[in-house]
Amino acid sequence: MNKVHSAESLRGLACLAVVFSHFFGTFFPQLHNFYGSNLPKFEFIELIYNSPFAFFYSGTGAVFVFFVLSGYVLTLSFLKSKDSKRKLKESLIKRYPRLAIPAIFSCLLMWVVLHFSVDLENVSEWFRSVGAKTPNLLEAIYSGAIGSFIFGEAKYNPVLWTMQIELLGSLIVYLICFFQKNNIIKYALVVISILASMSLSFMAFLGILSFILGHFLYFFSRRIPEFICIFLFIVGLYFCGAHNESASYTVFSKILGERTYNILNFFGGGLIVFASIKSNIIDNFFNKNILLSLGKLSFSIYLVHIPIMYILGVPIFNIFLNEGFNFVASALISIFISLLFTIALSVFYSRYIDDFAIKFSNSLSKLILKKNKIFEKSL
Predict the structure, then answer these.
(1) What is the pLDDT of residue 1?
(2) Beta-carbon neighbour count of residue 245 at 10 Å?
(3) Confidence tier at 372 by pLDDT (50, 70, 90)
(4) What is the DSSP string of 264-328?
């Protein structure tokens, strides 16, 4: 079994959790309870929030799954190369444009939809802030190309806060792989990277730690019994459902306090990836064509679902609400239609934007390395 396939499927499912987190958060902020909201509150939402089954809309847990998977897959890809020096150069050249091009286009998409006035009165305060920006072309490009990667900001597309961690984590993994045979330098890089990430933010620290965890998971060859893998997977799902004030996590919140949400989601993401990699049962479950296809679209889905909710989801919600449907029914119809259109647009986005970014970064790498080789020969 090719473990990259199961990782790809897991990435796709994690991406859906991010989408559900944001779509549900648009109409039911009570599911996260990060702030006091004026939107209607529902008893069944409160039950979900306080249950141990909130993992299906755990956007933060899903992000940690992304980070651990990236560390694992990048390590696998790097160590396949026979020429580590060339691989390092290629990887360092390719990573930024591969991530930045789709990110920039997602900000441009948001810039376009923000030109349309949408009534945000009946959605969450968080989503009102998303749609409250005055569209500015240069600001959108800057946000996608520089702001998100250098400063970890997300002024146009809220999901782009992860790009700084994704880029830094990738570069760290490449360097660790390059010095794989020199333990002193390798572990010095690990320690320095972890300490440096602390100066950014607590989430950046956990994110970089996730990349490093993914790297070391690649070398964990010990066989784990299936029942233990499945148990760890379930525990990971449980951790990913954590919220600071959820009744199902009181024992943890008494110890971890306000960091309960982030810390348990971090451990949850790591356990889910570890169990998926080590279990043949889970691996076989994930090795399905529909899940593999979803995994291929995951980055595109991740980037375009917020603009879709703004330009399509909220107007549909308003239409049904005005036609006499109740709040919950209007929201669920909006979420369902927005999800379908998100996936449909992601097929286009993956083919013409994401694939272009991959081809461009590959061509750029070949061009730079070719010129560098010519230059070295001329010396």
Answers:
(1) 38
(2) 14
(3) confident
(4) HHHHHHHHHHHHHHH-HHHHHHH--HHHHHHHHHHHHHHHHHHHHIIIIIHHHHHHHHHTT--HH
Give me the amino acid identity at 372. Answer: N
The token pair at 227 is 């029942």
Rounded to the nearest integer, the mean pLDDT of the chain is 95
Q: Find the length of the chain.
A: 379
Catalogue the E-assigned strands of 122-262. none
pTM, entire model: 0.95
Distance between CA atoms of residues 295 and 306, nearest Å = 18
Q: Residues 6 or more apart from 289 whose CB is under 8 A from it?
A: none
User: Which DSSP letter does residue 164 get?
Assistant: H
Tens of pLDDT along 174-223?
Answer: 999 999 999 999 999 999 999 999 999 999 999 999 999 999 999 998 99
Residue 129 belongs to what H/E stretch? helix 125-130
Q: Which pLDDT score, from 0 to 100, does residue 3 have? A: 52
> How many structural domains is the chain composed of?
1
Q: Which of 121, 60, 8, 122 is nearest to 350 (CA)?
A: 8
Q: pLDDT per residue over 113-138, tens digit each? A: 999 999 999 999 999 999 998 999 99
Closest CA to 313 of 155, 55, 131, 148: 131
| Whole-Å CA distances, 230 to 216, 271, 279 | 20, 10, 7
Domain range for residue 242? 3-378
